[in-house]
Amino acid sequence: MGLVSRHRIPAFFAALAVLLVASVLLSLALGATPLDLLGALTGDAASDRLVLMRERLPRTLLAAIVGASLSTSGLVFQAVLSNPLADPYVIGVAGGAALGGSLALVLPGIALLGHAGVSAAAFLGGLGAVALTWRLSRDSRGRMRTYEVLLVGVVFNTIASAAIMFLKSVVRAEKAQEMLLWLMGTLSSDVRSPGAILGTLAVALFAMGLLFASAPALNALAMGEEDAAAVGVDPARTTRRVFLAGSVLVAAAVSVAGMIGFVGLIVPHAVRALVGSDHRVTIPGSALLGAAFLVLADLLTRLMFPVFETEAPVGVLTALIGGPAFIWLLKRGGDRP
Amino acid sequence: MTRPTADSTPLRLDATTFLYPGAAAPAVNAASLVVAPGEFVGLIGPNGAGKSTLLRLAAGLLTPTSGSVRTAGFDPARSSRPRVARTVALVPASLAVGFPMTVRDFVAMGRTAHLKGLFESAVDRAAVHRALETAEAAAFADRPYQELSAGEQRRVLVARALAQEPRLLLLDEPTANLDVAHAVSLVYRVADLARSQGVAVVAAIHDLNVALLACDRIVLLREGAIRAVGDPESVMQWSILRETFGCDLYIGRNEVNGRLFVVPMGRDPEPVTGTSSPRRGRSS
């Protein structure tokens, strides 16, 4: 049902794995200044080793985790909301995380904790928004009404962005600039502690594992709620689990990297165009492709640094590269559905 | 969840009543029915008689307002969905699917409740293969479901239900949109399956002649209540059908095979006498 025929699926995963490894190696070796990777690892180039371990490796890992999280959550939101335009930010969790992070940036108490405090506040803000959305969009029998999830999400995001605007307008100019950079989405922030990165990785792997385990149920849900129930899937439970796991992924991604756009919208579509709509294939496929895509996009922002003497937000690049690539794929896929 | 009791009767309805929220009259009203293994029961009745609602109650998709439903001894509305799906399969009247999907993948959905892990085992694939063969859908197994005709989609829906390997097979209008050859072939294949494997079949059927061909028993519904139950010869009587459908029908006997057949007589010149006139209601 995609450009890649069924018996080539293992080859597809092998290609994705190679792509991810190659992206990671390029991202580690290249940048504003090229590194001697071998030398850094064997200890011959001490300063290179320092840049690698302190700067490049954490940043590359972060890009891979965030890319995988955004792509996977976008994929499952598109499935449970039956809406191809859904992305990780349609539901309220993004607004909540953005508001939490912004508050942390401007409130003196939390700002003392440094970037870890901002990330923690953003994560909590995201989870708070999930709880709110969940409460507001349940019917009397405890089932989530997907159109209300969307409505509540849109309204909540609007309220959150108004609150953020307000914060921006009342704080000092340099604080406002800091907020703006964070909100545009960046992997150059100073989340560099191994603890923060491994924590994010653990949360993301757990949530992705939960989603992967729900893949057969998600496949059945594509037939509609009643038919999913008829073949043995509890639609309410599946929707709830997928919504929660996806929200945790978004909250984790936003809390460490702000709002990086477009990855979560186009990677799932690209994967579906390539391999069809079986979630047992598209969930790991989106995770791998999303990770590679964001690692490469982030590498490009660093390579462009000497040209523009500033780092373009990675979210801008994901849209500039991803958009045309997506349209090309869509047209190819459209010829051979 | 209680263990299956000694009662292995595929379907037992006891004074089952269901009222849609806000509706004035129940869609199914105090229906009692026992279906034995291997039996093919046809539900007939006018639009809105409660046929689809009765099937959805038996599938556990609706919870009865009063009375009880038991499938193989358990309550399908209050049991885990995988457990119900391994016992009861429902063929819906029609189905549109959001994402492109091959027929084989679609039929494999019927194995969801049987999966041991995330992927189909050889046992699952064999069950899908048999289901495709039985429902005469194997020829287009690798085509996209969306591109099939309505009649072909119907056969795929039947195949999905067969892949569940149920003990109770519920069909909502299985022969709608099927050409005469495929309609006859499908009901005979389902009837053979019922007899050879002891699967109980309950099918809502609009075409009275199709019902006459395959059913061991006919249940006639009107306004949610069971008005008549019995073998086809006893239910398909002119007075019963005329009163139920509010339309004049000719019931004859086919000289070739000795079976009854029913044809409409066209516009009824006189008002139908009976307890009530034809009624429009919820589409079944």
Describe this structure in words.
The complex is a heterodimer of chains A (337) and B (284). Chain A is mostly helical and 337 residues long. Chain A contains 16 helices and no strands. Chain A is globular and about 65 Å long. The model of chain A has no long low-confidence stretch (mean pLDDT 83). Chain B contains nine helices and eleven strands. Chain B has two domains: 1-87 and 166-246, Rossmann fold (3-Layer(aba) Sandwich), CATH 3.40.50; 97-165, no CATH class. With 284 residues, chain B is of the alpha/beta class. In chain B, the strands form three sheets. Chain B has a six-stranded mixed β-sheet, with helices on both faces. A three-stranded antiparallel β-sheet of chain B has the order 2-1-4, covered by helices on one side. Chain A binds chain B through residues 1, 82, 212-213, 215-217, 219-220, 222-224, 226-227, 229-234, 272, 276-278, 280, 337, and chain B through 56, 59, 61, 80-86, 89-90, 92, 95-102, 105-106, 109-110, 112-113, 115, 118-119, 144, 160, 164.
